[in-house]
Every structure is written in C-alpha cells, then in structure tokens.
C-alpha cells in the first residue's frame, strides 16, 4: 500500500492518536523481544512503521510515511541571535536557525532504551528530540538548518522525515547521514506534501526570533504542554531553566 | 553436593585426607617431576603423607615474644613511649563461628543486635597461660591513647572471666555480647571497639596482655559494630529542585538536591552526583538522595543529556558538577554555600548515565575536558548501575579510580546477552585498575533501580521488585560511600563477605529470588602479589607470576573473558560461554575448567622468592559457575571446592569454601539468548585470611609456601561442576 501524507486535522479525524496508543499497547508485548539484545532492534525502523488506511482526501505520491513518522503536526522556523552546538550529530554543527516541529511518530520508535535507538532524521540531519513522545506519539523536535539570505531554513516540504537505523546520534556523521537518507528515499520516504506543511505551519504560528537556545527550549516546552500533555512535568522543567 | 566434615584436633577434614591418596596416584603419572605436587602428598614421601593426615610436619609458626610481626600494638618494637605499650600481643580475636574448619573467621564488622564472638587460636597463643583471664570489650583507642590511658573499662558494664584451653580454636570461642553493643555512630558508620584479654587481671592494658585493636592512629580497631545500613540515618533531610543558570546546555539544567536540614551547623559534606539514564528522570533517585543525605552527604541528581549518546551524557555530568560548585552561593539562597566538600565526590550513574560518568572521568583524566571547579582527583568513587558500553575500552575506562558496578540479572534493556556487547555491564568493571567491587542482583530489572514507577523493564523468572532492590541498594551504597569517601573501614566487610552469611539485617532475605553475588578486588599495589590473573604467560602450564600451573581438571582453557559467539547456548567450541567481562578491545582474561571425578585439582606453584606469605593477609580469587553447561545445569546448586596451601617442608592445610557460605551461586535461571536456561556467568569473590590455614594442629609454615591448590570433587566439595576462575592473589588488609 502506498503511504499517504495526512494533514493535522485529518490525523485527528482519523483517530490516529488512538491508533498510536493502540500500537503502544501492542508494543508492550513486543518490547521484551526488542530489548533482548540490540541485534533485534536493527530492523525495527523498517518493520514497525504503521500502514495507515489511505485517505481519499489527499493526493497519492506526496507522502512521507515510510520511516515511522506519520505526520507533521506543527512547525515554525526559528532564528537565534546566539547559537549553540548541535549534540545530535557527530559534527556538532553550529545552530543559528532551523525548524521547531511537532511530529506524529510511531510510538515504538521513541520507546526509551539504553541501547541504540532509531534516530529521528530530517533529510540528512538528526533532529534533537525534546520530549519522549511515547504515549502521545507527538515528538517536539529541533531540526537545525542553514538559513537562506532571507533568514529562513529550507522549505519543510523539501525535507524527508523518518527514523534512521538505531545508533547514537552523536556518532552519526555526514556520510552516515547521507546513507540513511538515501536508504530512506529508496524505501519510498518523501517529504510531506505542501498541504500538510501548510497546515502545520498554521498551527505552529509565526517564525520565532529568539535570543538563544534557552528561549527555544521554552518555546518547545509550550508545545510539549499542548501536544504531549502527559509530559507536563517535563514541560514545567523546561520552562524553568533560567536558574 | 557433599560437605566435608571436620577431623577432630587436626583441622584437616577427614574426607580431604581420604582423597589425598587418590590424588597422589592420579597426579604422579602427569607431573611427578614438579616439586609442588610432591608437597601436596603426590609422592611417596612419608612426611608429606603425614602432613596431609594432619600430623605436624615441622615448620611451626610460633609467635615468640619480640619476634612476631604482630607483637606490638603499633607493629614495632618500642618501649613505653608515645607509640605503644611494649610486650602487648596483638591478635585477631573478633569474628564469627564457622560450621567447619577453620571453625572461626576473624572479621571486622558486626551488626548491632547480633551476637559477638571472639576466639583464641591455640596456634598463636604461645606465652599466654590458660587463665582465668579477664576479657574486656572497650572503646577503641589508638596505640598512643592506650599509653596515656591504659585503664580498662568494659562497655558491657563488667569484664568477663574466661579460661583458655589447648587443642582446637573451636574450643576457644567465646560469646562476649548478645547484641547489646551500640552501633550508633551518628552519621558515620561503625562504632569502634577493641577486645582486650587482661592476662594479669590488672585492670589495665599492660605487657603480656592480648589486644585486638590499638593500631596506629586508631584506624584499625578490633571491631566495628554497625547499624543496619538500610535504615535511614539520624539527620532530617531537605529536598530542593532548581535549575542552574549556566554550564549544562539549556533543557538540561535542573538539579534535584538533598541535604541535611541542619546543614548550616555542619561543616563540609561530601557530594554525590547522580546521572540518570536515557528516558529516565533526574527526580527518580529520591531513595538514594534521602538515604545518603540522612547520613550527612549532599546528593545532587541532575538532568542528563543522554539522547545523543555517551559523550553528551558525560559532558552533562561534568558541567553539572561544575555548576553546583560554582553556584553554591546562590542555589536555594546559598544554603549549600561553603558546605560542599569538592575533594570527596562520588559520581553515580544509571545505564547510559552510568557509562557517562566513567566516560567523564576518562575525559578529564586524559585531558579531553577540563572542569573549572575540580579535577579527576576529586572524584573518589564511580558507581554504575547497568552501564552501557558504547565507547569501548579506549574511551570508557575507570582507570585507577575506585569503581563499583550494579547489575540486575533480569535487566530487559542493558541485558547482558552475548549478542550485545554494549549491553554487557561488566566490561567497565574489568577495565578498572583501582579498587573495584560489584553487586549482582538476580531478578532485578533495569527499572528496579530507580523509583520513577512504571515498568521494571525486566525479563526472566523470579523477579525482584523496586522495594527490595532499593533495600539492597541502600544496604550496600551506604557502606560503600562511607568507606570510599569517609574512609570508614567498617564498610569493607560488605564488599567481600558472602552475602548469605553477612548482609544488611533488613535485606530481603525472605525473598528467595533476591540472590546477591559480590566481588571485591582492592587496588593491586606493590604490597600485593598476583599469583595468576591469566593476563600473561598464556601457556596452560605456567601462571602469570611465572610459577608452574599443574592441572588435573578437565577441559582447562585460558582466554579472554568474552563469550565466543552471540548466545549463551552450551556449545563445546565456546569454552568461554557466558563470560561477558570483556568486549572488543578488552584484554581481561581468566580460565575455565570442569571436574566430575573426585580429587581433580589445580596447583599453582609460587615462584622462588615469592613464598613468604607472612607479609600478606588474604588469599583471594574470583570464581563463577559457567552458565548452561551440562554440569552446571545438573548440579543446579551452589558449588564448593577446597583451597589449600602447601609449604616447602611438605606441610599443607586446606579449607573448604563451603565453610564461609553456600558457595558459588548458580547462574540466574533466565532463558533466551540461545537455548537453555541460565544467564551470564557471575563471578563471586572468595577471600580467606591466610592465618586461617594455620588453625589447630596445622604445621603449615606461611613463610615458605610452595604452592596454592584448588581441589575438586565430592571429597572436597561439590561432586562435579564447571567454573571460571580469575585474579588469584595475595593481598594485604
């Protein structure tokens, strides 16, 4: 079945959150097997992606559902006056802007474990996951990106979102990231469609002009409260990082 | 399993004697030319046979006044000076009775409310008349203090009259207290006492008296009475939650700190930093925070950036440690200001955080990172719960810092299976060059070590819950930090004494699933001697110290302590099956072997020049059952064997390991990771005081020990079995 892009409103109308929770319940039984040695995890990024029922309201062929990322729920570009280093890739690129996004993901992909986890990717860049998202299926994440002359990151509908093979993000270098992207593309992962992105942008609100990472995290905390309310404790902690 | 019984007045189990004949004929055909075998009675020399039968073969180990290294309380021959009282006899006296030879084990720590016994070994009481004498239990003093105040005041209210007898130490064991002695040391651990035999009944410590204690500086008392380390300490505790303004990356700046409520009236307190694991929460370690703070520690648990990996986690540990030191004047209004002892810090981590703390130490030590407020020398203990091993030996290495490991046998995440090198917790432990100890808890899952609720992340039978896991954690963590951070010696007994015979009084003994295995290896220094750690001299006929190694056991193999394939299935070609102590790049080695015939043995000859064992206190080794082996599965019980010493005069003495506890535990009976049942191999430390080999009529001369022997089979312990062995060494206390 060809997988389809589903916009935010459609996701909720389809009861996808409930579907995700259902998946989580099924995963409880599978988790033990996955955790019995990391080897069992090796293909989980490919094997555990859900196939959603096709949605006649959307065009086929413009979807990004192949790698455990079901949809983009909210997105806004951000720009920082004072940047920081991105810990989630081997090169530690300097972050002065990018996308703050909320992605709807397959919960088993973000089940916490100490061994290698599937790495959430945006194109050839690992995202920084701010919350767990296991119960809600909603992951608030930061995608660092180069800003263009107008101070904007690359268009969101040009970026594939997917889970790469389990590994440590800080060990994932450019060449490995390129390999993961190519692999995902070969498996049919494509960027979210313009309509999805447009809806997500509408939810995300206006672009963020921030002082630095601290403010970015505070913005992320608000989205955790909104989209992953089970993690309200984390949201509260992230809202109080000023010392 | 067959337990040997004592032979009256000889100290040699009768079954051991019976077995010796069989050894003699069996071994002669294999290695008759080896002198050390001859000493074990493996030749036709009558003297050797007599010694095996328990008769004196000469080489007595008397303690002539003025010549005994333990003669004086301060270890030197001095007059009545500031350093000690002349003519005192210093002896180990306090200990516990054993069900078989050597009948009594001299130890350091006793739990409050439990019986306290002393024993006089007739072998070492030359010059001491039978009595009657007055036995005193007194407050411990240094040798210097005894000179100034020699009067004896029994803490029990009155001294006790005893009469010594000859023969066995078993006839000279005296119950001196039935639990009345206080173990309340406030925030410390262990109330120190000395035992004095007032030979002349003068009521003062005077020449000719016997004392257990009175060491230099008072740091080696006769004994400690300790409180139950699981119970909270005397101090009220305040918990605060806050963020530091800089240092750790934003999103990871929160700290949850526990400190004694009356800290304002206290001096500087040690700092324990807790680094959680991936997907965990810094607020999940209240059980440790409240517990240790009630004993006067400051405990700070911080947000940890574990998602990217181990380097990020390690950076978070380092920057949080910097941050609490740097901002102590402003945190919670400055309540901690001036009260953090930054030179006595502990890093404690869980899973990725557990590897992170070791990586952090490695980074500082190797110059990869430089903290601003402390150095690596300020970290005195690393304690890891279920650490991952992503980075390998070149980056995650405890080096020479004290290292402690916690492993749950039912861990469903860092699970220890042979297929997953980064899930094998013992890698980091075996890389530690300094003092290292481990606690292995059967049935504990990955999530059982924190108190965040939710899944135990456990797999396997007979699981142990959070409450029981936390009781064991408290029961060992407290003695550990008291020992390594505060130098309180009472904690050390917890590391090596068999859990079944010595454990925190409220440990969950009512749960048969809560099986605990312990290993302890003090840092190997120039004062110690490694007989065989299998790290060099890879020939099966030579130990790493260069002495001959004579084996009559079956399927003896040396090698890296790393399972040879990706599962725990019992396959003949995988001699190191179940070993998870080393991964790629690690060089930790040991040996495995098995026995099914009575009298099979391993004899380690000591090199010339290394045979004076009087300079050491303990013979120790670590050993384990080999998982899923047919013999292990068939035994399905703890295994015991017998350890012996033989001197150059042909005198020998043996001790059954079952005297100290049930023996080497069978592996945790977890399946998966291949076929069969039994999880990874669990080393346990066996540590025997060398003078235990001189009990009763033993003629063994510790000044000229020729070989150390391990004897197997029904006359020596378990009828059959397959075990791993490593770190056979002689250590000082």
Report what the structure shows.
The complex is a heterodimer of chains A (243) and B (733). Chain A is α+β, with helices and mostly antiparallel strands. Chain A has one domain. Chain A is built from seven helices and eight strands; from the N terminus they run αααβββββββααβαα. In chain A, strands 5-6-2-1-8 form a five-stranded mixed β-sheet. Chain A is globular and about 40 Å long. Chain B has 733 residues and is an alpha+beta fold. Chain B has three domains: 105 residues; 260 residues, Rossmann fold, CATH 3.40.50; 203 residues, Jelly Rolls (Sandwich). The longest helix of chain B is centred in the middle third of the chain and has 19 residues. The N terminus of chain B is likely disordered. Chains A and B meet through helix 2, strand 5, helix 6 and helix 7 of A and helix 6 of B.
Give the CA-CA distance, first to last residue of chain B.
Answer: 32 Å
The CATH class of the largest domain in chain B turns out to be Alpha Beta
Strand percentage of chain B = 15-25%
Indicate the multimeric state. heterodimer
The name of the CATH superfamily of the largest domain in chain B reads Alpha/Beta hydrolase fold, catalytic domain
Low-pLDDT regions of chain A: 1-65
Gyration radius over CA of chain B: 26 Å
Distance between the termini of chain A: 51 Å
| Strand residue percentage of chain A | 15-25%
Quote the CATH topology of the largest domain in chain B. Answer: Rossmann fold
User: Could you say which overall geometry of chain B the principal axes of the C-alpha atoms support?
Assistant: globular
Number of strands of chain A: 8
Strand arrangement, largest sheet of chain B? 12-13-15-14-16-17-18-19-20
**Structural class of the helix and strand makeup of chain A?**
alpha+beta
Reported for the largest beta sheet of chain A, the result is: 5 strands, mixed
Structural class of chain B: alpha+beta
| Strand count of chain B | 31
Helix percent of chain B reads 10-25%
Order of helices and strands of chain A: HHHEEEEEEEHHEHH
User: Average pLDDT of chain B, to the nearest integer?
Assistant: 89
Overall geometric form of chain A = globular
